[in-house]
Design brief:
This protein is mainly beta and 672 residues long. The protein has one domain (7-671): TonB-dependent receptor, beta-barrel domain (Maltoporin, Chain A), CATH 2.40.170. It has helices at 10-13, 18-21, 64-69, 400-406, 450-454, and strands at 22-24, 31-35, 74-77, 85-88, 96-100, 125-131, 144-150, 160-170, 175-186, 189-200, 216-230, 233-247, 255-271, 277-294, 304-323, 328-348, 355-377, 382-397, 416-430, 435-446, 458-460, 465-468, 476-489, 492-511, 524-548, 551-564, 577-586, 589-598, 616-629, 632-641, 663-671.
């Protein structure tokens, strides 16, 4: 894979070792792959001579969510210290795909407290693939796809035990971080195991103000085994386990008492460089998510409630690439998945019998899809990429209890059967050795989510309304376009993207005055309905400048705009944001100074009770040192975030919850 810098990963560059961390998948120019080399076992080898550097951020306490928040395409909805929800270019999570190793996984929380990204730690993360223009490879979508690719065992060095140990501390949340990675390789076998533990108390915002209900604890385990069947075939199995408890969400009326994820897969990979069929991967997988919301630690609760949720998915897929000739190739993907969801609420009112209802009435989603991408480099200057996908979705209620409950509010509880179509066409032209441009036109469709179809009195703390679904919703369809400009010469890289889309049959919650609320204190009831259309557009800009061998300056910008058919602003659209970093390396030392700033957001949706947000500027500084102890590598990283103890919040942070104030941290890493 050719090393290039793309705007999609420029947000990380201030923290990244640029020469190693960024790669782009040549199979399609819309797939951005962020290689996290330092989380692979190769950084643990005794013969590694280069200084260990911070591969994506200097604070190695960072979660995968922290990494995602740095990407120009992605904004994060924050409801607490944990479980932030990634949005691609302001498309909501129902309009985009979030996968692990190509596997479909569905959160078990009706309040979106458990996005899939929380189940992958940087210690078991190999790369992040972000697809925008051709984002339908992994499934029908409007916004694109984020695929979190996990690390495989390293079998390159036989009879070697390698690994690393990490320990860190942060002052703002009195937070501890511990992790360990081991890799063992022998002949045709390789094994890799990792564990990460995080324990954070309620964090302090500016001025030392404690933000209650922001603490959390979690532990994450990963185990992989790899077997070389022959020089062209590899068999691999992966197990990913994640447990969290006492997870606080200060922006919500409830916390999480306990949550768990169990993710399993078996893969067969074939690599035959001398054949027309170059690479083929077969995978079968299964996963189960359990999530229990809890309000027992909250004060002044009007009525105690238990709200457990369950998600079970199994599926299979095959990916393959076919070389037509030296200038053109085809990529195929065929996949299948089946997801069962259920969630309930039990309300305990003093002096009365408990009241029970289903909030996600038991339902199943069966998906079958086929995708293909054709790429042709006509000559050294011109390239065309054509992508297409078709999906068949079957949504149904699986119990009589679910059908009976929904029949109270919906006219039909019959099975929903939809066929979705996706298509994109991209043309790229290189004007000179330094300057290139590309244009993409696309069409996409997406099925309504289970919440939008079957949700039953789901309380939304953002606008204080109860929400109910509608099984009569139409799929959303979108016409999309984007233009990319890239200028590169030694020591300077500039990348600009502008995009726009018109989403027909856009799904929004609409106020229903004839319906009574279920939640005490709710402002009313909204039901998901299709409106005629909505517009999403924006731009991303990145500049990377290297004035000297040991100095790098990076600045990135991202801007989003959204409006409905009445030109009313869509809710949860982030304002212009910039991150600028300066990094200096001196032998074994590296120093990074950074500013992060955002404009005020005054274009808000008052019907959704969205508030305007002030702009902010914060500064961070990070210092790292790498060395050796008896031929083993180590690194020490320290830093201060929000140096001036600024009181601020980002626009997508729910409620008026301020972010962390001044935060000192230190992390020690030892590699053997």
């Amino acid at each position: 894979m050719k090393k290039i810098v793309t705007l999609s990963i420029l947000g990380l560059l201030g923290f990244v070792n640029f020469s190693q961390a960024q790669k782009k998948d040549l199979s399609t120019d819309s797939i951005v792959v962020i290689r996290l080399n330092e989380v692979t076992v190769k950084t643990c080898l005794k013969n590694q001579t280069e200084a260990l550097k911070d591969f994506f951020i200097a604070n190695k306490n960072a979660t995968t969510e922290d990494i995602l928040s740095r990407l120009p395409e992605i904004n994060m909805i924050k409801r607490g210290s944990y479980g932030t929800e990634p949005l691609i270019r302001s498309y909501n999570t129902g309009q985009s795909n979030l996968l692990i190793d190509g596997m479909r996984i569905h959160g078990a929380c009706t309040d979106k407290m458990d996005p899939v990204s929380i189940y992958v730690e940087p210690q078991n993360l190999q790369s992040i693939q972000v697809q925008t223009s051709h984002g339908t490879q992994f499934g029908s979508t409007l916004g694109g796809t984020i695929n979190l690719k996990m690390v495989s065992p390293d079998i390159e060095f036989n009879n070697k035990l390698t690994g690393n140990l990490s320990s860190g501390y942060q002052t703002a949340a009195n937070a501890f971080f511990e992790s360990a990675v081991l890799n063992y390789s022998s002949n045709k076998w390789a094994f890799r195991g990792n564990v990460t533990y995080r324990n954070a108390s309620d964090y302090k915002s500016s001025g030392g103000t404690v933000v209650p209900y922001s603490a959390y604890k979690k532990v994450n385990y990963g185990l992989s085994a790899l077997y070389l069947v022959n020089e062209k075939t590899t068999l691999k199995t992966d197990i990913l386990l994640d447990d969290g408890w006492n997870i606080g969400y200060p922006s919500l009326p409830m916390d999480v008492g306990y949550a768990e994820a169990r993710i399993f897969s078996i893969s067969l990979l074939k690599n035959n460089p001398n054949s027309k069929w170059k690479n083929t991967e077969y995978k079968i997988y299964a996963n189960r998510i359990y999530h229990a919301m809890d309000d027992t630690h909250r004060e002044n609760v009007a009525m105690h409630m238990d709200m457990p949720g369950y998600s079970k998915t199994w599926g299979a897929f095959v990916n393959s690439s076919y070389s037509i000739n030296s200038k053109s190739n085809l990529q195929f993907r065929a996949d299948f998945s089946s997801t069962n969801l259920s969630a309930s609420m039990t309300m305990y009112q003093a002096g009365q019998s408990p009241m029970y209802m289903l909030t996600w009435p038991n339902n199943r989603n069966i998906q079958t899809g086929l995708a293909a991408t054709y790429k042709n480099r006509f000559d050294s200057l011109n390239t065309i990429i054509i992508s297409t996908r078709i999906d068949q979705f079957i949504n149904s209620l699986t119990t009589e209890e679910a059908k009976n409950q929904l029949s109270v509010l919906q006219e039909s509880t019959a099975t929903i059967n939809k066929t979705l179509k996706n298509f994109s066409l991209e043309f790229e032209h290189r004007f000179s050795k330094q300057f290139s441009a590309s244009a993409n036109l696309g069409y996409g469709e997406r099925i309504p989510t289970s919440t939008e179809l079957y949700g039953f009195y789901l309380f939304n703390a953002f606008d204080n309304y109860d929400y109910i679904g509608s099984s009569s919703l139409n799929p959303e369809t979108a016409y999309k376009a984007d233009v990319k400009l890239n200028y590169t010469k030694p020591g300077l890289q500039i990348f600009l993207v502008a995009y726009a889309s018109k989403i027909n049959q856009y799904i929004l919650g609409m106020y229903q005055p004839t319906l009574s609320t279920m939640t005490i204190g709710a402002s009313g009831v909204k039901q998901f309905q299709n409106i005629s259309y909505a517009i999403l557009s924006g731009a991303e800009l990145g500049i990377v400048y290297k004035p000297a061998k040991t100095v790098q300056i990076v600045s990135t910008f991202k801007y989003n705009y959204g409006a409905d058919n009445n030109k009313t602003p869509l809710p949860l659209i982030a304002p212009l944001k910039n991150i600028t970093s300066i990094r200096k390396e001196i032998k074994r030392w590296n120093l990074l100074a950074e500013t992060e700033m955002a404009n005020p957001q005054n274009r808000v949706n008052f019907l959704a009770k969205e508030n305007t947000t002030n702009g902010y500027v914060i500064a961070n500084v990070r210092l790292g040192y790498s060395g050796t102890i008896q031929q083993n590598n180590f690194s020490i990283n320290v830093g201060v975030e929000n140096i001036f103890d600024k009181a601020y919040k980002e626009h997508l942070d729910w409620s008026n919850i301020k972010r962390q104030g001044r935060n000192f941290y230190t992390v020690f890493n030892f590699y053997f």
